[in-house]
Specification:
binds hexanoyl-coenzyme A, 3 domains, 21 helices, 514 residues, 8-stranded mixed beta sheet, alpha/beta, 2-enoyl-CoA Hydratase, Chain A, domain 1
Length: 514
């Protein structure tokens, strides 16, 4: 019977710990529309799949009366479980315990689960809800963050790292999510900033709310720190689960294959692009007309909308999509869209995900603002990312492929494996109007009918260069295809490149234009 007594004792100890910071703190958490740390884990993982580690870990701080304080599980829950059967390691900060602040043992729990994830080569999910460095623990807290950042970096490109911001993520704490692959935020709940409103008021005398400073919308639309925006925690968890289905467990594997499915008929690829090349269209409809079941999972939907990135499946296999969006600034490349695309290309390359690029780009955005914001450096990231990527690279030129945009958007010259062009493609140094005005300037100005001559010269230029055939004649385009043939050509090319191998020159690492 002695064992039964011990089991009861264990149960009582567990129950006490499971209460976290106590009922009052939990009520405060709920009043803000937030779940508790354990509820979040349960909502995200498969039912009954979670095993918790280090439930009984306690802090060791002694200063500022800390010896008298009990902080259950030291304010962070760690463990592992599954999502649709795929193993994941997870931590969730418990705001009800000392505001989820990060002390020595708290950070050691996080680094323990990070080490576990890396060793087991499984994805890591971190749920952040914390007041930052535990002030009473001084440099021990700072050391803890450093240990986390180091592991984020070492794990980068080996295992997927996912950050979920479900409360404050303040001060240096923001740098762990910033080092991970995907950041999820929820409206009115996520708050991310280096220095909070109090400090800003003291130092700069400016009043700003936490929401305006670093709320979910700010990071989804303006800073580009967040990759997925949700209205509720529930919606956020659904997004994370969906992402997990698209990515592999680690860089040594491919994403799980699914049952292939045809695109939906409502996305008719022949009807999406207007006849008039000056009219816009939604490139997401083109993607949906190509991918299995028309299921396109967009990443960074609200940021730099002039480029679209995300995942879909082709014949059941995960594929990354990068596409200029004519609906937004004519699909031009600029500082933000270059950053967005380059990072995604590198993600796909690190995790064995082939990339399909859909091109309709008038070039890089001109202007003083862009030049001074560093469009040279940021724009170069796209060239670097495509050139360096060794996963299968497939390109479809839909319409405009002008100037630097033509080269940057996964051209043959950056080692695209397959380049297809629709008959509507215009591959040229610049648009026909601009080109004719420059090269025929004298002729146009000296003619008796400048407008008529300009029209004639534009038509002449179009006839000669604004088509896919000049590039096709050089072998820069492998095939000019009808829009309706696109999926078939892409599926064929993906199958053909299943065992693609590339030998790159040996080096420690390159120097991307960061
Ligand atoms: C210790 C903390 C804490 C912290 C919150 N708490 N933050 N304890 N260290 N950093 C405690 C509070 O004392 C309180 O304890 C409980 O958590 C809940 O906090 P409240 O303030 O009541 O909650 P709320 O009103 O919701 O405000 C949340 C908050 C605020 C906005 C996050 O707590 C706050 O501003 N905290 C400090 C943020 C900060 O400046 N952190 C340090 C950043 S510097 P009781 O016992 O009363 O319930 C940093 C450097 C890292 O992180 C550098 C690494 C490179």
């Amino acid at each position: 019977m002695a064992i039964n007594k011990k089991i009861k004792e264990l149960q009582e100890k567990r129950e006490k710990m499971l209460l976290g910071g106590g009922e009052q703190a939990i009520e405060k958490q709920k009043a803000l529309g937030k779940r508790t740390a354990r509820e979040r884990i349960m909502a995200l993982l498969d039912t009954n799949s979670f095993i918790e580690y280090d439930l009984f870990v306690e802090h060791e701080a002694r200063d500022f009366d800390m010896a008298k304080k009990s902080l259950p599980s030291d304010g962070v829950i760690i463990g592992s479980g599954t999502i649709y059967g795929a193993p994941v390691a997870i931590f969730a900060q418990d705001f009800t315990v000392a505001g989820g602040s990060l002390g020595r043992m708290h950070s050691r729990k996080i680094t323990k689960i990070m080490d576990h994830a890396l060793m087991m080569r499984i994805p890591l999910i971190g749920i952040n809800d914390s007041g930052g460095a535990r002030i009473q623990e001084g440099v021990n807290s700072l050391a803890g963050y450093g240990e986390i950042f180091f592991r984020n970096t070492i794990s980068s490109g080996v295992i997927p790292q996912i950050s979920v911001i479900l409360g404050p993520c303040a001060g240096g704490a923001v740098y762990s999510p910033a080092l991970t692959d995907f950041v999820f935020v929820v409206d009115n709940i996520s708050k991310m900033f280096i220095t909070g409103p109090e400090v800003i008021k003291t130092v700069l005398g400016e009043e700003i709310s936490m929401e305006e400073l670093g709320g979910a919308r700010v990071h989804s639309e303006i800073t580009g720190n967040a990759h997925f925006f949700a209205s509720t925690e529930e919606e956020c968890f659904d997004q994370i689960k969906k992402l997990i289905t698209f990515i592999p467990w680690n860089n040594g594997q491919k994403a799980k294959a699914f049952e292939p499915g045809e695109p939906k008929r409502e996305y008719n690829i022949e009807k999406i692009v207007p006849d008039d090349p000056t009219l816009p269209y939604d490139v997401k409809d083109v993607i949906r007309s190509i991918v299995d079941n028309s299921d396109f999972f967009e990443v960074m939907e609200l940021y730099a909308k002039n480029i679209v990135i995300g995942f879909g499946r082709m014949g059941g296999r995960t594929t990354g999509f990068v596409a200029n969006q004519p609906l937004e600034m004519a699909g031009v490349l600029d500082v933000d869209s270059s950053d967005k695309a380059a990072r995604f290309i590198r993600y796909c390359d690190a995790f064995n995900i082939p990339i399909i690029t859909l091109v309709d780009v008038p070039g890089y955005l001109p202007g003083v603002d862009q030049e001074h914001a560093g469009v040279i450096r940021h724009g170069a990231k796209v060239l670097y990312a495509y050139s360096e990527a060794t996963v299968p690279k497939l390109t479809v030129i839909i319409r405009k492929a002008y100037g630097g945009g033509y080269i940057a958007m996964s051209s043959r010259h950056l080692r695209a494996d397959f380049v297809f062009a629709w008959p509507s493609a215009e591959i040229a140094v610049m648009g026909p109007e601009g080109a004719a005005n420059i090269i025929f300037r004298k002729e146009i100005l000296s003619s008796e009918d400048p407008d008529g001559t300009r029209r004639k010269k534009v038509a002449e230029y179009k006839e000669k260069f604004a088509n896919p055939y000049v590039a096709a004649a050089r072998g820069f385009v492998d095939a000019v295809i009808e829009p309706s043939e696109t999926r078939r050509f892409l599926m064929h090319s993906l199958n053909a490149s299943e065992n693609k191998t590339v030998q790159m020159p040996e080096k420690k690492h390159g120097l991307p234009p960061l």
